[in-house]
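Practice set, problem 2.
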Amino acid sequence: MIRECNRSLRISQEIQKEITIILQRKINDPRLNMMITVSSVEVSRDLSYAKVFVTFFKEKQNLHTIENGLKALKSSCGYIRSLLSKNMKLRIIPLLNFFYDSSIKNGEYICNLIDKTKLT
């Protein structure tokens, strides 16, 4: 049981690294003309599904930017998966689902609240 957990953890870390490289070098979608960070990857126990959590960095980031970025990633999901299959030696390449990771935005909000309480 512990070995299985370690294996899925190692595979999720490797998928995270490979997807980061793919997004930086291989994807040329104009909707993704911003910096994209893969913050984490969660792989199912049978390694058939993966949740990929991403963060977008753009000067003017709003809900529209996030929605367009996620749509672009979901439309290029098959291409990313095929590149993963070439770079990774796995029998089953998981189906990818992209989600927006709002933890950085939440962290900024909390830091702003702390700064406001320090000033008063």
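Problem 2, part (b): a different protein.
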Amino acid sequence: CPLPSPLERLALPHILGFLLNVPSRVTLGTLALPVSRPHWVGVRRLGRTFYNLDSKLAAPAAIGAEPQLREFLREALSRGPSELFLVVPRDVEEAGTWLSPE
């Protein structure tokens, strides 16, 4: 039986939000250059819906519920060198309950 991926093990009810550092294409006006640079993206849950708070968007964009969030994170992290930071309350961090047991 294969082990669940780290994204599948995230205990989403204990996590307040996410910060992603992902590659972003560099543009000059409408011209996209063949270069990328790191870009920070925030994700936050409101109610049962997660929202993409990327500053490059005109407004926050609904991602959806937990399954859609996991797919959003999987896709974002697959684009190249990237990092994922979890935003959790201190008690969750200290107890390590942001991650479900295997």
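Answer key, part (b): The two ends are 12 Å apart (CA to CA). The first strand starts at residue 17 and ends at 28.
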